[in-house]
Amino acid sequence: MDRFNRLIRRLARPDIPFYTLPWLMVLLVAGTVAQRDMGLYAAQHNFFSSWIAWFGPVPAPGGYSTIALIGLALTAKFVIDSKWSWRNAGIIIAHGGALLLLIGGLFTAITAREGFVMIPEQGENAAMEDYHDKRLTVTDSHGAVLADIPATRLKPGTQIAAGPLSLNILEYCHNCTPAERTEAMRGTLPFVGPAAQIKMTAAARDINEEQNHSAVTVAIRGSTSGQDGIYLMTDIMPHQPQIDDITVRFGRTVTPLPFTVALDDVRRELYPGTDMPRGYESHVRVKDGTVAWPAVIRMNEPLRYRGYTLYQSNYALMPGGTEATVLSAVRNSGWLFPYIASIVIAAGLILHLALALRGRKA
Amino acid sequence: MMRALTALVVLCLCLFTPMRAQALDIAGTGFDAIPVLHEGRLKPMDSFARAMHWRITGREHPAQGSATQWLAQILFDPLEAAEMPQFTVRNHELSALLSLPDKDGGLYSFTDISAALAPHITMIGTLAQQDKLSPAQEQLLQLQKSVIDYTQLMRSLSLILPLSVTLPGMEGDDYLSLRRHEEQVQKKLDAIMKRKGDDIERYTDEERQTAAFAFQLAVIRDSAQGNEILRVIPAPWKPGEWLSPWAVIQSGQGSPETGLMMRDLKDMTEAWRFGDRETFTGAAAGLGYKTLPADRTRLETELAYNKAALFSWAMGLYGGALLLALLALRRARLVRPAFLLGAAGVLAHGAALALRVYILERPPVGTLYESVLFVALIAVATALVAGRRNPALLAAGFTSGAGLLFMAPLLIRGGDTMPVLVAVLNTNFWLATHVIIITAGYGFSILCGLAAHIWLAGAALGKPQSSTPMHRLALLALLFTTIGTILGGIWADQSWGRFWGWDPKENGALLIVLWLVWAMHGRRASLLRPALYAVALAGVNIIVALAWFGVNLLNVGLHSYGFTSGIALALAVFCAVEAALIAALWYKGAHRERAA
């Protein structure tokens, strides 16, 4: 118990934040500059949303580790060393608010899910897709999942057992360009379907994740109807090979929403005489079971329903002239934390400033 | 194709009757108040002229006369405008490439430049696709753009400028009135060509005139395709939309009202031709009131704002106040005049920002340029409040005010100081809260940094200063930057679905907050000695500069709507000079302390 007390007291000392904050600043600068070459998503995952950040080949404490340490120090300080006094009231309240903010951040990092929902006019959609999360999924005729492998684990040579079938990954590229395939067979297996004509070769990874079109070439054995072969699947082709009564799919993760969104009209308002967008808005109908009601989603005015928040993200014109709306969908139960935390921090700082200006020593 | 078009333009100009050699002085004629729709906003002709002048020449107004006079010349007398030296080419590589003759100041006319550019059109097209360009190549692209803009302006009124060839028996002297004969004349020409082929030598005089006339009409009509820059005619069937004179007839959207407006334009053209100021004024006023009969206050305010040049006044007053404040370091009784002069500057500065709010109908900060204007105001106003009897702090405030105002015009993009905002910024609530609070935070941080410089200078010179001003300013800066950053997160949550995305602008703001937090914690825990605490606070200027401007150089993330070019070098120099200055002051102070 005594050792525990000593540990808490050690954590509450101000030297931990004093020496850790500069490191957080280094991470901020490195992670920001790296975005130019790596892209936002990759830089974020390497420097900020990580326990270890890689500076080239050199590992160093990442965002999670650094913030965790500061969080622990802040908690210890708040618990042990914040005896209430009016002199320190502002600081104590501000610290409490900061702690709330960090807790909210932790909650979000663990539980939040996000994706996008694209709906053409007069159409509807009941699922969100995530282009950061592509998977190879094998399901049987009853819908039971036989295998579910994230794209990061699809390397040449990987063997996957999926019920009666055995899959062997031959090629995988994160961003690919098509080329003509000249071989008809490899070993004893024929190239089947699109794989027979097209070969995917690796291309430079685009900074914008949604521009990366991935593809996987798989050798499938174990079919009872003579469908053994080499198949090609990409995330933009709807081709889903059916072998016996088993479906193999590769693509962006699709998460069903607990409701359906139908798009009646999407409007893009331009500044008169220009093609610069002034605002976007989507006139939708939300359908949940037997109930349906209209709603408008605009920039800066999202729709919140059943734990999901839908934001106006973009506007698309599809081939054929149909307009479509692109909504970004986020499920984040911790969304209120920052709102509450900011009020608390503001109150604390204002109080502290007021007390300091009234002559009490800061 | 482009070569043919350029030839077409030059040819086109020959089709019009040459104007008087002397230009009409349009000052006081009300031409500058004519409403124009440009880049999504209705503005007075004066603002449009300034924006166009900036885009084409890189300066807000010509060396002599106003931008509006310059514009009037181009619109009403394009033949003359083609010969005026307008385009600057100083880059030796570029002038060699274009085989331009040596001219004083590197100024060339439209005719010279368009002839010089013609052989290189394909090359320019390829260059436009490239990412990395040398300075000469960038200037070449810019020159091409300027020439295209200039051409569009020259052609704007070509439908009402008098032609040099007309046929007897036809009413009117311009395309607008003569175009109804176009079909008939074309038929006549077809008949002639059927009889005599297309060898013009075989035609009679009358037949030659017919051919020339038909050709003229066709050339003028074709060369005005897509001429939409001078949108002075409100579209009769689409409220809120404005059209250029050519667009009105080419899209068939004319009405009796637009006919009257064209009549006013025609009157102005003729008045220009004959130097008739009275008629010109009458027609300009007529046009202005027909196109915008009500709600003219905003337009007129903008005109007054343009003319008042309040920011130049403020900058001048700050400069004067700075001098007085520096002298006040020796003579204490000069503090009051310095303060008063600075206050006068703040009034002019504040008035300018208030006028912008009225004209644009939104809070004052929406672009990078506006953020500089606002931060300058905050810095000076805070210095006046916090340093009423402190000449050093006043001097610091006036320096930042004058310096920032001086720098601000470098951040204007596309010549328009009042552009409309992109969709996500189109929210008055967040512009009034997050943006104002965080830019105020930048302002307080800058003044805090300067107060720390003063403390360090005091220590270096053996005249120790109180640390209270810099400490209180640090608290104020921390309050505003923290709340501003968090409000930014809340806005991002409302707009993009996530409170924090680690994008450059967010990281920059957080960097300032963390820096201040770190410095203050260090002082509080006695881990930073007073001198190092001052160094840390003085360094906040560098952090603010990086967070404010540096992030725009990266041009990534959802915040990339404030991109600037050429700022990188200035930023690097600033940071280096500041770091050196702070280090030198600290060293001198530490040396003195050790010697004591």
What does this protein structure show overall?
The complex is a heterodimer of chains A (362) and B (596). Chain A has 362 residues and is of the alpha+beta class. Chain A has helices at 2-11, 15-38, 40-48, 63-80, 89-111, 194-197, 336-357; strands at 52-55, 58-61, 113-120, 124-139, 145-150, 159-162, 165-173, 176-180, 185-186, 189-190, 198-202, 215-221, 229-234, 242-243, 246-270, 277-288, 291-298, 303-305, 308-317, 323-331. In chain A, strands 4, 5, 14, 15, 16 and 17 form a 6-stranded antiparallel beta sheet that branches. In chain A, a hairpin with a 2-residue loop joins strand 16 (277-288) and strand 17. In chain A, helix 2 (15-38) packs antiparallel against helix 3, helix 2 (15-38) runs antiparallel to helix 4 (63-80) and helix 5 (89-111) runs antiparallel to helix 7. The radius of gyration of chain A is 26 Å and the shape is globular. Chain A starts with a helix and ends in a 5-residue tail after the last helix. Chain B is built from 25 helices and 6 strands. Chain B has helices spanning 2-14, 45-57, 67-76, 78-81, 92-97, 110-117, 121-129, 135-155, 175-178, 182-196, 205-223, 245-250, 256-274, 277-291, 297-308, 310-328, 335-360, 368-386, 391-407, 428-461, 468-496, 504-524, 530-538, 540-554, 567-595; strands spanning 35-38, 41-44, 85-88, 107-109, 233-234, 242-243. Chain B has a two-stranded antiparallel sheet. A two-stranded antiparallel sheet of chain B has the order 3-4. Chain B has a two-stranded antiparallel sheet with strand order 5-6. In chain B, a hairpin with a 7-residue loop joins strand 5 (233-234) and strand 6. In chain B, helix 18 runs antiparallel to helix 19 (391-407), helix 22 packs antiparallel against helix 24 (540-554) and helix 23 (530-538) packs antiparallel against helix 25. The termini of chain B are far apart. Classes of the chains: A alpha+beta (362), B mainly alpha (596).
